[in-house]
Amino acid sequence: MSQTTVSVRMDEALKKDFDSVCSDLGLSMTTAIIMLAKKMTREKRIPFEVSIDPFYSEANMAALNESIEQMKQGKTVVKTMKELEAMEDA
């Protein structure tokens, strides 16, 4: 089977950390990337969860903006346990 070269650009610190983790696992970075490519090709999906940081969700941003307004008005910011738990789940 013929082979080809794939070039990937990444932050130097990320590359160093990635290389270190691969080394700890007994893999080269090339082997790790090939494993990812094979798994994605076989499963036709990204083999891990890709998500957006929930901190920036609309619900959390609305709650934060409400608290900021309360602070600007000199009010004590108060949240019930139920509200805090709801923010955690958002």
Could you characterize the architecture of this molecule?
This protein is mainly alpha-helical and 90 residues long. It has 2 domains: 1-50; 54-89, no CATH class. It is built from 4 helices and no strands. The chain has helices at residues 12-24, 29-43, 58-72, 81-89. It is elongated and about 70 Å long. The mean pLDDT is 89.
Characteristic terms for this protein:
90 residues, mainly alpha, 2 domains, 0% strand, elongated
Question: Would you kindly provide a brief summary of this structure?
Answer:
The protein has 90 residues and is an all-alpha fold. Helix content is 58%, strand content 0%.
Secondary-structure element order, as H and E? HHHH
Average pLDDT reading: 89
Sheet-strand content, in percent, reads under 5%
Record field, number of beta strands:
0
Name the structural class.
Answer: mainly alpha
Determine the N-to-C terminus distance: 48 Å
Largest sheet data: none
Q: Judging from the principal axes of the Cα atoms, what is the shape?
A: elongated
Itemize the secondary structure elements and their pairings:
Layout: H1 12-24, H2 29-43, H3 58-72, H4 81-89
